[in-house]
Every structure is written in C-alpha cells, then in structure tokens.
Backbone:
C-alpha cells in the first residue's frame, strides 16, 4: 500500500460528515476476532483512495461507538496539492464512493496546522428519546425508544434542567461516568489503556421536552468514553423518576446525582447507572479557533449559536 507522505506537495482538507451509526461498528478502526469491521473512518479512506489511487489516512474529531450517529462530524486528510481544484464538487465525488449511510456534506481547504481532533475547542452531542406505548419509526429519527404510557409533558423537567444547569461553566471529574472498560482499540489490532484524565469542562447543557419525547444537548471541551450516554441515563432518571438499574428499588434523587460528580471516587457508575443505548446519541458538531472554524455557518452550528449564549 503506497502513501502520499513525502512524495508530492500536499494540502490539508477538512470534511463535514454525517452518518447513520447503526450501519457501522463505530467511527474508527475496529478488528473483532481477526475480522476488520466496517467503520466510518475506513469507508472515508476507501472513498479517498478510489479518487486518488493511493491510501490517505483520515483523522476524525471524535470517536463514536457502534450505533451512534453524527450530523456534524469533522475529519481531515492530507491530499495532493490542487486536489480540491481538480474536484470542485469533491463532496459529491466522495459520496459516489460511499455507502448511503454516510454523506460528506462539505469539503474545505484548511491551514496545514489544522487537526480535526487536536485543534478542537469543544464538541457537541445530542441524546434523543422517543416516549410512546408503540415505537414510531419516523417520529423521532436517531432516537432511543422507551416504551411508556407517560407523556413527555408529564416529566419532572425542571429537576433535570436544574441538575444540568449546575454543570455549566465548571470543570468536573467525570470518573463516575466513564466506561468500565480497561482499554480501547486505536488502530487495527492495536489497543491502548483508557485515558486516566476524567476532567471535562461543560460549557452548555440543556434538557428539553419534545412532542415525541425529550432531548439532551451538551457542549464540553472534551468527553470521557461513555460519558454522554451515562449522563443521559442520569438526567432521564431525574426527569421521569426512574430507578437507574433493575436492582435499585427507588428512583434516583437529585442528591444522588450530584454525588456522582462531587464524590466520584465513592460512587462508581456501574453501581448507579444503566448505560443509555447508543442509537439515541448523535455527534452534532465541533468548534475550532477563528480561522480554522470553516463549517461555522452550517445550519446546525447557527442553531447552536442561538441557544448557547
């Protein structure tokens, strides 16, 4: 397999990508029992290779699990200089080589110092629930269905929002919300320990009832693995007074939810939280410093700008 590195002059391009995560084993490389599994990163690299005739490594702004979606994932790649001029409709050219579950929404040249992951200032996730006695296929796409006769309007939304509001503008230790896995796969056949750093600064968090259920939005400088899905489980329990695990007889209290943040060493997530399902989670967007934030004018980002003030 050949590479473009140190062969021809290069330029860096950023890709704005959306995908239906249920079709993939995750966003980044996965090998399971010796079999390379289909991932978003792999599909993007294959599409670029089809256009270039040689392998190009794609870097993503974040890592999503199997079944997790994206509406505003950002990636970058090094391509031959002048590549974007040769393909003025590069997004369409890439999409012709991608499965229908992935779409490159936009492509833009960026500075050589740009890195989709390391240049990011913040990331934005949404978790969406559908609450109904019968699952509605088209009512709330990219959502987790909860079978319940409870109407969304009946939830204790003020308590859920009060807990989220307390997170904003502060740095917290999210050790209680991290995955219990000891390592993760970082490239085919290569595993690394989970990062020890569990600190994250939450910039904005909002809970909102919707006609079909409820949504959680959260923006932070970084996210610990499984942090959003565990947060979603907690805030849902607060809003609808659910017990967090099958063995827990009483609903989660606001004091218990706060203890998960204040005393993370004493309250392990596995004792309190049943991890929220992946299909309700979507990676919505990522922000960069001025001069690098080439997708700031997209509709999703404009909506966020109106909410996060």
Residues:
């Amino acid at each position: 397999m050949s590479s473009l590195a140190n062969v021809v002059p290069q330029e860096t391009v950023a890709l704005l990508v959306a995908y239906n995560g249920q079709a993939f084993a995750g966003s980044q490389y996965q090998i399971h029992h010796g079999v390379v599994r289909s991932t978003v990163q792999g599909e993007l690299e294959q599409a670029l290779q089809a256009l270039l005739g040689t392998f190009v490594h794609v870097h993503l702004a974040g890592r999503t699990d199997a079944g997790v979606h994206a509406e505003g994932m950002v990636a970058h790649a090094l391509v031959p200089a002048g590549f974007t001029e040769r393909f003025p409709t590069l997004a369409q050219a890439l999409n012709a080589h991608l499965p229908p579950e992935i779409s490159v929404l936009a492509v833009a040249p960026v500075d050589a110092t740009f890195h989709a992951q390391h240049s990011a200032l913040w990331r934005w996730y949404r978790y969406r629930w559908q609450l109904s006695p019968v699952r509605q296929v088209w009512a709330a796409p990219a959502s987790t269905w909860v079978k319940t006769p409870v109407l969304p309007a009946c939830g204790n939304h003020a308590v859920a929002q009060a807990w989220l509001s307390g997170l904003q503008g502060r740095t917290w230790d999210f050790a209680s919300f991290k995955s219990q896995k000891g390592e993760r796969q970082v490239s085919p056949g290569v595993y690394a320990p989970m990062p020890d750093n569990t600190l994250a600064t939450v910039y904005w968090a909002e809970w909102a009832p919707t006609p079909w259920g409820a949504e959680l939005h959260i923006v932070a400088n970084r996210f610990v693995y499984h942090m959003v899905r565990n947060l979603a489980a907690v805030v849902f329990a607060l809003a609808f007074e659910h017990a967090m695990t099958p063995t827990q007889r009483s609903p989660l209290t606001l004091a218990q939810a706060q203890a998960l943040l204040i005393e993370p060493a004493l309250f392990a997530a596995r004792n309190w939280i049943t991890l929220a399902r992946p299909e309700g989670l979507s990676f919505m967007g990522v922000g960069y410093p001025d001069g690098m934030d080439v997708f700031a004018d997209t509709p999703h980002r404009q909506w966020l700008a109106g909410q996060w003030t």
